[in-house]
Protein backbone atom coordinates (compact mmCIF):
# COMPACT_ATOMS: atom_id res chain seq x y z
CA UNK A 1 0.00 0.00 0.00
CA UNK A 2 2.81 2.40 0.90
CA UNK A 3 4.61 1.88 -2.41
CA UNK A 4 1.36 2.30 -4.33
CA UNK A 5 0.69 5.62 -2.59
CA UNK A 6 4.20 6.85 -3.41
CA UNK A 7 3.77 5.80 -7.04
CA UNK A 8 0.48 7.71 -7.28
CA UNK A 9 2.02 10.82 -5.71
CA UNK A 10 4.96 10.60 -8.08
CA UNK A 11 2.65 10.36 -11.08
CA UNK A 12 0.48 13.25 -9.87
CA UNK A 13 3.57 15.38 -9.35
CA UNK A 14 4.36 15.01 -13.05
CA UNK A 15 0.91 16.37 -13.88
CA UNK A 16 0.98 19.21 -11.35
CA UNK A 17 4.66 20.13 -11.73
CA UNK A 18 5.93 18.67 -15.02
CA UNK A 19 9.62 18.09 -15.59
CA UNK A 20 9.98 20.89 -18.13
CA UNK A 21 8.54 23.37 -15.66
CA UNK A 22 10.76 22.19 -12.80
CA UNK A 23 13.77 22.36 -15.10
CA UNK A 24 12.82 25.91 -16.11
CA UNK A 25 12.63 27.10 -12.50
CA UNK A 26 15.86 25.30 -11.58
CA UNK A 27 17.68 26.99 -14.47
CA UNK A 28 16.13 30.34 -13.53
CA UNK A 29 17.43 30.10 -9.97
CA UNK A 30 20.85 28.99 -11.30
CA UNK A 31 20.99 32.18 -13.37
CA UNK A 32 19.97 34.32 -10.41
CA UNK A 33 22.61 32.70 -8.15
CA UNK A 34 25.21 33.14 -10.92
CA UNK A 35 24.39 36.85 -11.19
CA UNK A 36 24.85 37.17 -7.43
CA UNK A 37 28.24 35.48 -7.79
CA UNK A 38 29.19 37.88 -10.59
CA UNK A 39 28.20 40.93 -8.54
CA UNK A 40 30.10 39.70 -5.47
CA UNK A 41 33.26 39.02 -7.49
CA UNK A 42 32.98 42.35 -9.34
CA UNK A 43 33.54 40.61 -12.66
CA UNK A 44 31.85 41.36 -15.97
CA UNK A 45 32.56 38.00 -17.61
CA UNK A 46 29.88 35.44 -18.35
CA UNK A 47 29.30 32.70 -15.80
CA UNK A 48 26.70 30.02 -15.17
CA UNK A 49 26.93 27.96 -11.99
CA UNK A 50 24.55 25.12 -11.25
CA UNK A 51 23.43 25.05 -7.64
CA UNK A 52 24.60 24.17 -5.10
CA UNK A 53 28.00 25.84 -5.17
CA UNK A 54 30.20 27.13 -2.37
CA UNK A 55 32.48 30.17 -2.40
CA UNK A 56 34.94 31.70 0.06
CA UNK A 57 36.68 34.98 -0.82
CA UNK A 58 34.64 36.29 -3.76
CA UNK A 59 36.86 39.38 -4.10
CA UNK A 60 39.92 37.25 -4.87
CA UNK A 61 38.32 35.47 -7.85
CA UNK A 62 38.72 36.73 -11.43
CA UNK A 63 37.37 35.12 -14.60
CA UNK A 64 36.48 35.74 -18.23
CA UNK A 65 33.78 33.13 -18.77
CA UNK A 66 33.13 29.67 -17.38
CA UNK A 67 30.43 27.13 -16.64
CA UNK A 68 30.13 24.68 -13.76
CA UNK A 69 27.88 21.78 -12.95
CA UNK A 70 26.63 21.41 -9.38
CA UNK A 71 28.97 21.07 -6.41
CA UNK A 72 31.72 23.55 -7.29
CA UNK A 73 33.87 24.81 -4.36
CA UNK A 74 35.95 27.93 -4.93
CA UNK A 75 37.94 28.82 -1.82
CA UNK A 76 40.33 31.75 -1.44
CA UNK A 77 41.62 31.78 2.12
CA UNK A 78 42.99 35.19 3.13
CA UNK A 79 43.10 34.25 6.83
CA UNK A 80 43.53 30.92 8.61
CA UNK A 81 44.68 30.25 12.16
CA UNK A 82 45.51 33.94 12.53
CA UNK A 83 47.85 33.97 9.50
CA UNK A 84 47.08 36.25 6.56
CA UNK A 85 47.40 35.25 2.91
CA UNK A 86 47.00 36.98 -0.44
CA UNK A 87 45.13 34.41 -2.53
CA UNK A 88 43.84 34.56 -6.08
CA UNK A 89 41.95 32.28 -8.44
CA UNK A 90 42.02 33.31 -12.11
CA UNK A 91 39.87 31.50 -14.67
CA UNK A 92 40.18 32.17 -18.40
CA UNK A 93 37.82 31.84 -21.34
CA UNK A 94 35.55 28.92 -22.16
CA UNK A 95 36.34 26.86 -19.05
CA UNK A 96 34.01 24.05 -17.97
CA UNK A 97 33.92 22.28 -14.61
CA UNK A 98 31.98 19.07 -14.16
CA UNK A 99 30.38 17.96 -10.89
CA UNK A 100 31.91 18.44 -7.41
CA UNK A 101 35.17 20.21 -8.27
CA UNK A 102 37.18 21.81 -5.46
CA UNK A 103 39.64 24.65 -6.08
CA UNK A 104 41.43 26.02 -3.03
CA UNK A 105 44.00 28.84 -2.92
CA UNK A 106 46.13 30.73 -0.42
CA UNK A 107 48.64 31.72 -3.12
CA UNK A 108 47.56 31.60 -6.76
CA UNK A 109 45.71 29.21 -9.03
CA UNK A 110 45.46 30.21 -12.69
CA UNK A 111 43.38 28.21 -15.17
CA UNK A 112 43.84 29.12 -18.84
CA UNK A 113 41.44 29.17 -21.77
CA UNK A 114 39.46 26.21 -23.12
CA UNK A 115 40.12 23.98 -20.13
CA UNK A 116 37.78 21.04 -19.51
CA UNK A 117 37.69 19.66 -15.95
CA UNK A 118 36.09 16.32 -15.07
CA UNK A 119 34.09 15.56 -11.94
CA UNK A 120 35.53 15.20 -8.41
CA UNK A 121 38.71 17.11 -9.27
CA UNK A 122 40.87 18.80 -6.62
CA UNK A 123 43.17 21.69 -7.54
CA UNK A 124 45.01 23.16 -4.57
CA UNK A 125 48.07 25.32 -3.99
CA UNK A 126 48.43 24.47 -0.29
CA UNK A 127 48.32 21.80 2.39
CA UNK A 128 47.51 21.64 6.09
CA UNK A 129 50.96 21.90 7.64
CA UNK A 130 54.48 21.27 6.41
CA UNK A 131 54.19 17.46 6.41
CA UNK A 132 57.14 17.03 8.73
CA UNK A 133 57.89 16.82 12.48
CA UNK A 134 56.65 20.37 13.04
CA UNK A 135 53.10 19.12 12.58
CA UNK A 136 53.19 16.04 14.80
CA UNK A 137 51.72 17.68 17.90
CA UNK A 138 48.77 19.28 16.05
CA UNK A 139 45.62 17.82 14.57
CA UNK A 140 45.41 18.37 10.79
CA UNK A 141 42.68 21.02 11.03
CA UNK A 142 44.80 23.09 13.43
CA UNK A 143 47.96 23.09 11.33
CA UNK A 144 48.96 26.23 9.43
CA UNK A 145 48.19 26.39 5.74
CA UNK A 146 51.39 26.12 3.72
CA UNK A 147 51.96 26.63 0.00
CA UNK A 148 54.98 25.32 -1.92
CA UNK A 149 53.98 27.50 -4.86
CA UNK A 150 51.17 28.39 -7.27
CA UNK A 151 49.29 26.13 -9.67
CA UNK A 152 49.17 27.17 -13.32
CA UNK A 153 47.09 25.27 -15.86
CA UNK A 154 47.76 26.48 -19.37
CA UNK A 155 45.35 26.62 -22.32
CA UNK A 156 43.51 23.68 -23.89
CA UNK A 157 44.07 21.19 -21.08
CA UNK A 158 41.72 18.28 -20.44
CA UNK A 159 41.61 17.06 -16.83
CA UNK A 160 39.91 13.71 -16.24
CA UNK A 161 37.73 12.43 -13.39
CA UNK A 162 39.07 12.25 -9.81
CA UNK A 163 42.33 14.06 -10.60
CA UNK A 164 44.35 15.84 -7.89
CA UNK A 165 46.64 18.70 -8.92
CA UNK A 166 48.87 19.66 -6.01
CA UNK A 167 50.94 22.79 -5.19
CA UNK A 168 53.81 24.22 -7.20
CA UNK A 169 52.76 22.66 -10.50
CA UNK A 170 52.50 23.99 -14.04
CA UNK A 171 50.43 21.94 -16.49
CA UNK A 172 51.52 22.65 -20.04
CA UNK A 173 49.09 23.54 -22.80
CA UNK A 174 47.27 20.85 -24.79
CA UNK A 175 47.93 18.23 -22.13
CA UNK A 176 45.60 15.43 -21.06
CA UNK A 177 45.50 14.22 -17.44
CA UNK A 178 43.93 10.79 -17.14
CA UNK A 179 41.36 9.79 -14.55
CA UNK A 180 42.57 9.25 -10.95
CA UNK A 181 45.93 10.89 -11.63
CA UNK A 182 47.81 12.77 -8.89
CA UNK A 183 49.95 15.57 -10.34
CA UNK A 184 52.89 16.63 -8.13
CA UNK A 185 55.37 17.93 -10.74
CA UNK A 186 55.36 20.15 -13.81
CA UNK A 187 53.75 18.74 -16.94
CA UNK A 188 55.30 19.53 -20.35
CA UNK A 189 52.96 20.72 -23.12
CA UNK A 190 51.27 18.07 -25.26
CA UNK A 191 51.64 15.37 -22.60
CA UNK A 192 49.28 12.57 -21.63
CA UNK A 193 49.59 11.64 -17.95
CA UNK A 194 48.29 8.85 -15.76
CA UNK A 195 49.00 7.31 -12.38
CA UNK A 196 49.85 8.19 -8.78
CA UNK A 197 52.23 9.91 -8.90
CA UNK A 198 51.63 11.07 -12.46
CA UNK A 199 53.82 9.74 -15.24
CA UNK A 200 53.93 10.72 -18.89
CA UNK A 201 52.56 7.82 -20.90
CA UNK A 202 52.39 9.54 -24.26
CA UNK A 203 53.46 12.74 -26.01
CA UNK A 204 51.01 14.25 -28.45
CA UNK A 205 52.05 15.66 -31.79
CA UNK A 206 53.87 18.96 -31.35
CA UNK A 207 54.05 21.25 -34.36
CA UNK A 208 55.87 24.02 -32.54
TrEMBL record:
<dbReference type="InterPro" id="IPR051159">
    <property type="entry name" value="Hexapeptide_acetyltransf"/>
</dbReference>
<protein>
    <submittedName>
        <fullName>Acyltransferase</fullName>
    </submittedName>
</protein>
<dbReference type="GO" id="GO:0016746">
    <property type="term" value="F:acyltransferase activity"/>
</dbReference>
<dbReference type="InterPro" id="IPR001451">
    <property type="entry name" value="Hexapep"/>
</dbReference>
<keyword id="KW-0012">Acyltransferase</keyword>
<dbReference type="InterPro" id="IPR011004">
    <property type="entry name" value="Trimer_LpxA-like_sf"/>
</dbReference>
<keyword id="KW-0808">Transferase</keyword>
<dbReference type="Pfam" id="PF00132">
    <property type="entry name" value="Hexapep"/>
</dbReference>
<keyword id="KW-0677">Repeat</keyword>
<dbReference type="InterPro" id="IPR018357">
    <property type="entry name" value="Hexapep_transf_CS"/>
</dbReference>
